[in-house]
Write a structure and sequence with these properties.
Chain lengths: 505, 108
């Protein structure tokens, strides 16, 4: 059963997660005004699946049941699925102007489908079947999953088992006949408060001493002992002041993250997908990272489309739309965004089939995609700030706009070109502020891994030895097989004869 | 009779390893076999082979696609296609030879 947006929000009422924010316990996620924008963004992933104009991208056919499902619960069965995934990301970025959160769980589902298959092949375990059963449950109920990977890590110079406090990485503290008990915490958990299920994975490559940290599982968001502490964002309480000052009142900014704490959480065996197979931790992390880094030239470019539109509107409202330097800067913003889009498409089209039958994007190109997204949004945001002008950070508040004593003064002195309401101009300034100055930027930097994480993967897969050999052939250090065929003799003979001819005129 | 092994390479746009190494290892390990190359669109070549080896320079596996495109109208059997990713290590050489021995066993 595919839910629509409204049904998704109602479905959250069935859960009783333990969540804290600003010193209080949240009683109802669906009714919490600080959470609502994030919930609306996630709801868009459900709503568009029911719209004939978008269903080709937003839905898929389950390879397990043959039923029509929301694409966010699908396992990629082809290169076309990988491409449709990034098209869906861009679409949702355009429709929400922010992070819609559901991709993390989507990527966790795909990474675990592939990895559990490989673990079983090597170790003779039955994780894959357990995972497939869980996946069917997710597909049947159209659930939103939060993918929990990043541990809090403590001292970064120490491996998990070397930490003074062993709980700084999520680990197994007890193995029982009916399941395991886990303890630890995951950071930056996007969309956690409004997800139905949590999928946990290890965060790094692990060795034999880290065996207890090689754990993957799924629990409902309201599992006993699972605590979420919702994070603050810049200007977050503006959303309590009205619908102008936060810039994107309906869908918020970035995803709404939590510090997720597993305080001795019990997980039944049927929900455990890795337990001690440390030799597959790196594969799981890299596969997840590849899927997640694939996304960023989709979702962030969708958001950039909104920013470019907002900036172009402001240029019009300010009366400078035809200035050549404005056109040039907007063109530069488009070029940067489309370059990231090229990367997402490329890594998808260069995807391939894994032994499990599921498809994965090209890891090198997925990492290049994300590395570009740690840079280009800063530049397109700088250009947006440049075009928008200083009011992007000095605009009076909505409360002053609504105050009868100041309303007329603001409307008179904040006016732009004729024919555009002052309030519309203020709304556009706020939207640019939201998109180009707020938390979107560090999210581009660190979401799906910080730049160095991508560089490590790019270096590993860069085939530098192959490139060195190419250079040796061109420089004449190694033999050039094809040159020999073209000229019909060895390189030495060819150049010797050539020089002789030149000498003899 | 010597087993006939047809080799089909991918286009080699950006290989992660020296693809020719695969052919060299197979030729060294199975000297009694008859090796030949299958060209793009070469249905006759495909029909001649007892075993077809697809050699792709990366996991995109274009050699497999190429063989599939030749064999669309071919009702015979493409015995096996292998896509090998990297042969940097001795272990991978061993795996490649073992895998191919398995294919030849099946053929018998």
């Amino acid at each position: 059963m595919m839910m629509n947006g409204k049904e998704y929000i109602e479905s959250l009422r069935k859960y009783r997660p333990t969540i804290y924010f600003m010193g209080r316990k949240i009683e109802s996620v669906a009714d919490e005004p600080m959470f609502r924008p994030h919930i609306h963004a996630a709801a868009m992933t459900y709503e568009l699946a029911h719209d004939a104009r978008y269903e080709d991208i937003m839905t898929a056919t389950s390879h397990l049941t043959g039923e029509k499902i929301n694409r966010f619960t699908h396992i990629h069965q082809s290169v076309d699925d990988l491409v449709k995934k990034v098209r869906m990301m861009r679409l949702l970025g355009q429709k929400t102007g922010t992070c819609f959160q559901r991709c993390v769980g989507f990527d966790a589902l795909n990474a675990l489908y592939i990895t559990t298959y490989d673990v079983d092949k090597k170790h003779g375990t039955d994780y894959h079947q357990r995972f497939v059963d869980f996946l069917k449950y997710v597909q049947r109920n159209d659930l939103m999953c939060v993918g929990a990977m990043t541990d809090v890590k403590g001292d970064r110079s120490l491996r998990p088992h070397q930490q003074k406090d062993p709980d700084l990485y999520v680990h197994v503290v007890e193995r029982r006949e009916d399941g395991i008990v886990v303890r630890g915490a995951k950071a930056h958990q996007t969309g956690a408060v409004n997800s139905h299920e949590v999928i946990v994975m290890p965060t790094r490559a692990l060795g034999p001493e880290d065996k207890d940290y090689a754990v993957s599982f799924a629990v409902p968001i309201d599992a006993e002992g699972l605590i979420n502490i919702f994070s603050r964002q810049t200007n977050d309480t503006r959303r309590l002041d009205g619908d102008i000052d936060c810039g994107n009142a309906k869908y918020g900014i970035v995803g709404g993250e939590t510090l997720m704490i597993f305080n001795d959480v019990f997980v039944p065996w049927e929900r455990v997908f890795m337990c001690g197979e440390y030799d597959f931790a790196a594969q799981l992390v890299e596969t997840f990272a590849t899927f997640h880094r694939q996304n960023y030239g989709g979702c962030k470019v969708g958001v950039a489309d909104v920013l470019i539109g907002a900036t172009a509107n402001l240029a019009e409202y300010n009366g400078v739309a035809k200035a050549s330097h404005i056109v040039d800067k907007l063109t530069e913003m488009i070029h940067l965004a489309e370059t990231c889009w090229c990367c997402s498409l490329a890594c998808s089209y260069e995807g391939y089939k894994t032994p499990s039958g599921a498809y994965v994007p090209n890891p090198m190109l997925a990492n290049v995609t994300k590395l570009n997204v740690t840079r280009f949004p800063y530049e397109w945001s700088r250009l947006a700030q440049d075009i928008a002008g200083g009011f992007v950070i000095t605009t009076p508040s909505e409360k002053d706009l609504r105050n009868p004593e100041t309303r007329e003064l603001i409307e008179k002195y904040m006016k732009g070109v004729d024919g555009v309401e002052t309030e519309h101009r203020l709304r556009m300034f706020r939207l640019v502020e939201n998109l180009a100055i707020g938390a979107q930027l560090p999210e581009s930097m660190h979401g799906a891994g910080s730049p160095q994480a991508q560089k490590i993967m790019i270096w590993r897969r860069g085939s530098v030895d192959m490139k060195k050999e190419l250079a040796k052939i061109i420089a004449g250090v190694s033999k050039d097989e094809h040159f020999r065929k073209i000229v019909g003799k060895s390189e030495e003979e060819f150049f010797k004869e050539m020089l002789k001819k030149i000498k003899n005129g | 009779m010597a087993v006939k092994i047809g080799i089909k390479y991918c286009g080699g746009c950006n290989p992660a390893f020296r693809r020719e190494k695969i052919e060299e290892i197979l030729r060294e390990s199975f000297p009694e076999a008859h090796f030949f190359h299958i060209s793009s669109g070469d249905l006759e070549g495909l029909k001649k082979a007892d075993v077809v080896v697809g050699i792709s320079g990366c996991k995109r596996g274009c050699a497999v696609e190429s063989i599939n495109s030749i064999s669309q109208n071919f009702d015979g059997t493409v015995m096996t296609v292998m896509t090998v990713i990297s042969i940097d290590e001795e272990r991978e050489r061993g795996d490649l030879v073992a895998q191919f021995k398995g294919v030849l066993e099946e053929l018998k």
